[in-house]
Design a protein that fits this description.
By secondary structure, the protein is mainly β. It contains no helices and 31 strands.
C-alpha cells in the first residue's frame, strides 16, 4: 500500500515552528536546540540505541550519525532551516522534522534572580523588606517597591510602618541587560507569619537554586524550586572553551566544574499545566580543589602529538587516566602503575581533533584534573 504522509505543524521550543512528515508512528524525529554563540547543540527526542540520525543544518552542511547529541558551528549569524531524518531498523520506521534555528553572534542575555526577605513586629506594625538580587558581575540593576500596587520606594531595602490590615509588598527588578522580574510577600499585621501570595494562573516559569559546596569550591548543587510541578526535567551546562555538559535528568543534581570561569546552567522541563519552560543562571567558579600532598601538571600545552603529565604521588598506587573533549565525551583512557615521587606519564593525542581537552587522574579516592589544548 502506498504510504500517506501527513504534515503536522506545531509550536515548539524557543517559539520555533516544527514540521514533521511521519511514515510510521513508531519513530519521533522531534528535537530541541540550545545556542551558544555561532555553535548550536541539538538534542533528538528519539535516543534509542542504533537509530540513524540524518541532519541537514541549513547551510549546506550535513551529518549522518547514531549519536544522541550533536553540535554544529555556523559561519555567520542568521536563521537556518534544520532538518532531521531518523531511520530505525529495529522498529522499522522513519520520521523527519524541521525547525527554524536562529543563530546570533552572542549568547542570549543572562537571567537575573530576585527574592524578598521580611523582618518585623506585627504588634508595632514596623517591617523591613530586603531585596536579594542575583545578577552577573558588572550588571547595573534598579529595584522599586510597591505596596498594594502603589509605588512605595526605591533601593534594595524598604522600611514601612503598617496599621492593622493585609498588605502585598512587591520588589520589582530591572537590569541593564534587559532582565525584569518581581518577587512579592503578603503580610497580615497582628499576624507575624509572612507568606508568599499564590501565583497568577497559567504562569509558565521555572526557577532553581544553585548552592556551592562549602568544602569543595568547584562543586555546586542545583535544585528546581517546587520540582513536583514539572515533568521531563533536564539540565545542561555551557562554559569556557566550548564546554558543553549534559543533559542531566532529575529535579536536582550536583556538578563539579572542571576549571575556573563563568558557566551558564540551564534547566528545561514541562510544567504539568502543559506548557514548556526553560530558565538559566550564571555560576562563577573562583577556584578548583586539589588535594594536599598531590600535584599534576601537563606539558607541552598547547600540544600536537603527545602530552606528558607530571604526577607527584605519596605511595605505590594504580593511576587511572581519562581524557574528555569539550562536550564531555570520553575520548581516551588508560591505567598505569604509580610509585612514590614524581611520575611522568605520556599520552598520545596525535589522532585527536583540534580543540580543548580535560584530563582526569584518579588514584584511590583522589581525583586530579588538568586542561590541555590540542593544535
Amino acid at each position: 500500500m502506498k504510504k500517506t504522509y501527513t504534515l503536522l505543524c506545531f509550536l515548539f521550543l524557543c517559539g520555533q515552528t516544527t514540521v514533521r512528515a511521519q511514515d510510521i508512528s513508531g519513530c519521533n524525529a522531534s528535537f530541541t536546540w540550545i545556542p551558544a554563540g555561532y555553535t548550536v547543540y541539538f538534542y533528538p527526542a528519539d535516543s534509542a540505541s542504533g537509530v540513524r540520525h540524518l541532519w541537514n543544518f541549513g547551510d549546506s552542511a550535513t551529518l549522518s550519525t547514531t549519536a544522541t547529541l550533536v553540535s554544529h558551528t555556523y559561519g555567520t549569524a542568521g536563521t537556518f532551516t534544520v532538518t532531521q531524518v531518523i531511520i530505525d531498523s529495529v522498529r522499522h520506521c522513519r520520521d523527519s522534522s524541521a525547525q527554524q534555528v536562529v543563530v546570533q553572534a552572542s549568547p542570549p542575555p543572562p537571567t537575573c534572580g530576585l527574592s524578598v526577605t521580611t523582618t518585623g513586629d506585627s504588634l508595632t506594625g514596623r517591617y523591613t523588606f530586603v531585596a536579594n538580587v542575583t545578577t552577573p558581575p558588572g550588571t547595573i540593576d534598579t529595584v522599586t517597591w510597591t505596596v498594594n500596587d502603589t509605588l512605595a520606594g526605591h533601593g534594595d531595602t524598604l522600611v514601612r510602618n503598617f496599621t492593622v490590615g493585609v498588605y502585598t509588598v512587591c520588589a520589582n527588578l530591572r537590569t541593564s541587560l534587559g532582565c525584569r522580574t518581581q518577587s512579592c510577600v503578603t503580610i497580615n499585621v497582628n499576624d507575624s507569619v509572612a507568606s508568599t501570595p499564590p501565583p497568577p494562573p497559567d504562569t509558565c516559569t521555572i526557577n532553581f537554586t544553585a548552592v556551592p559546596n562549602g568544602r569543595q569550591p568547584d562543586q555546586y548543587a542545583f535544585t528546581v524550586i517546587n520540582g513536583g510541578e514539572y515533568d521531563s526535567i533536564s539540565w545542561t551546562i555551557i562554559g569556557p572553551d566550548s564546554l558543553f555538559a549534559g543533559p542531566y535528568p532529575g529535579a536536582s543534581f550536583s556538578y563539579t566544574f572542571p576549571d575556573t570561569g563563568f558557566y551558564a546552567v540551564y534547566v528545561s522541563a514541562e510544567k504539568r499545566s502543559g506548557c514548556p519552560v526553560r530558565n538559566g543562571q550564571y555560576v562563577h567558579v573562583d577556584s578548583v580543589s586539589v588535594p594536599s600532598g598531590h600535584s599534576v601538571n601537563s606539558y607541552p600545552n598547547p600540544a600536537t602529538s603527545q602530552v606528558t603529565l607530571n604526577v607527584t604521588l605519596n605511595e605505590y598506587t594504580a593511576v587511572n587516566i581519562r581524557v574528555y573533549n569539550s562536550m564531555g565525551t570520553l575520548v581516551l583512557s588508560r591505567s598505569v602503575s604509580g610509585y612514590p615521587g614524581v611520575n611522568q606519564i605520556t599520552l598520545p593525542i596525535a589522532n585527536l581533533p583540534t580543540g580543548v581537552y580535560y584530563i582526569q587522574l584518579q588514584f584511590g579516592s583522589t581525583i586530579l584534573k588538568s586542561k590541555i589544548q590540542k593544535l
